[in-house]
Amino acid sequence: MPSEGNSSYLPLPEISDANLSHSFKSQKPSSKKKCPVLCRKGIYHVNRSNLSNTASAISFRDSLDNVQLASIYQPDKKESYFDQCFENISKIGEGSFGEVFKVRSREDGLLYAVKKSKQFFRSESYREERLMEVKRHEEFSGHEHCVTLYMAWEEKDRLYIQMELCQSSLETYVIQQKQIPESQTWSFLLDLLLALKALHDRNLIHLDIKLDNILITEDGVCKLGDFGLVFDLSRKQFPIRIDESNKVLGELLRDGTELVTNIRIANDKREIDRRADEAQLREELLEKLNAESEAAAEKFQDISVKWSELEAVKDPFNMHEGLQEQKERIQELTRQKDDIIKECWKELTKADERYYQDQEKQASDIVCLVERVDHHIEAMKSAYRKHLDLLQQTIDNERAIQLPHSFSSGAFSADTV
C-alpha cells in the first residue's frame, strides 16, 4: 500500500465572497417591485421518452438463466411489478437513498425484504452509480455473513432489490434485548469481521457500517447489508467527483446563459414591435397628409380662380358676396392645416411617451437581469461549496485508507479472530 509521503494530492481551490456581487443597483431605495426569483429547473435533466415503464431484471452475473421476472407478472397491466408480485405488509426501514418493505411473494408465498430507491434516475451516470449496489451485493450474496440478494429490477426510473428478510437490525435487537451476553457479543463481532474480511479481500471498503445496516437473522447470525456505499480502492473517486461537479456547474452556466438570452430576445421583440408600429403609423400619417395636401391644393386652386373672377366683377354687392365665400374657403383651408399640425403634434407626443416607456422597461429589465444574475451567482457559489466539500471528503477518505498504519486486508483473517 503506498505511503502518504509518496502520494500527491490536488490542491483545492478557494472561493472568496469578495468581488462576486456584480451588482449595479442604485443605493437609493427603489419603488419598483422586486424581480421574482427565478424558478430554476432541475440541475439534472433526462429524456424519459427513452426509458421503459415496464420492469426489467438487473444482474451482473455471468449467467442470466436464474435471474428472471416472476411468471405472474403481466407487463400490460397498469400495476407495477412490485404491486403485482408482492403483498406489501409494512415498511421496516428507511434511509437516505431508499425504503425497505416487508413483503410476501404472491408467487411462492415466502417473506422477503424489498428495497425501493427514493429518487428517480436523474441521468445515465446516476443510474449506473445506483446499479453498482446490485453488482457489489451480488458479489457477496452467497456469503454466510452478508444479506442474500435474490433479484433486482428497474421500473419507471427506480431501482428495486429483493433481499433476504432478517429478524431485525442490530440497533432494534439491542433495544429489545437490553442485555446481551458477552458470548453473543463476541459471536456478532466475529460474524461482522468475517463479512468485512470478504470485502477487504476484494479491495473493497464498506463506508456505511452502522447499526441499521447490521442485521440479525432468526438463527442469531449477524449479517452485513446495504452495499450502496462501497469504496473500490482500485478505482479513484476523485476524477468521478470532478466530473460530477463539472456537470452541475455546466447546468448552472447554461441556465445563466438562458436568462440573459431570454431578456435579450424580449428586448429585441419589443424593439421589432415598436418599429413595426411606428412604420404603420408613419404610413397612415403620410397617407393622411397626402390626402390633405391634395384637398388643400384643390381648394387653393379654387381660391385663386375666384380671385381672378372677382377682379372682373364691377358690382360691389356681388364683390362682397364673393369675398365672403373666399374668406370661408381660406378659413376652411386654415382649419385643415391646423388639424394636420395637431395630428403631427399628437404623434410626436405619443412617440415621446413610447420612448420614455421603453426606457423605463429597459431599466426594469436591467434591474431584473442583475438580480437574477446575483441569485444565479449565489446558486453557483453554493454548488461550488457543496462539491468542494464532497471532493474534500473523498480526498480525506482516500488519505485515511492509504495511511501506512491502517489495517491491511490480511489482518482480518479467521485465524486471527
UniProtKB/TrEMBL annotation:
Pfam families: NYD-SP28 (PF14772), Pkinase (PF00069)
InterPro entries noted in UniProt: CC_SR_Kinase, DRC1/2_N, Kinase-like_dom_sf, Prot_kinase_dom, Protein_kinase_ATP_BS, Ser/Thr_kinase_AS
Enzyme Commission number(s) from the entry: 2.7.11.1
A GO molecular function held by the record: ATP binding
GO biological process: meiotic cell cycle; negative regulation of G2/MI transition of meiotic cell cycle
Keywords linked to the UniProt accession: ATP-binding, Cell cycle, Kinase, Magnesium, Metal-binding, Nucleotide-binding, Serine/threonine-protein kinase, Transferase
GO cellular component, one term: cytoplasm
Reactions performed catalytically: L-threonyl-[protein] + ATP = O-phospho-L-threonyl-[protein] + ADP + H(+); L-seryl-[protein] + ATP = O-phospho-L-seryl-[protein] + ADP + H(+)
Residue ranges of domain Protein kinase in the record: 86-367
Family: Belongs to the protein kinase superfamily. Ser/Thr protein kinase family. GCN2 subfamily.
Protein name: non-specific serine/threonine protein kinase
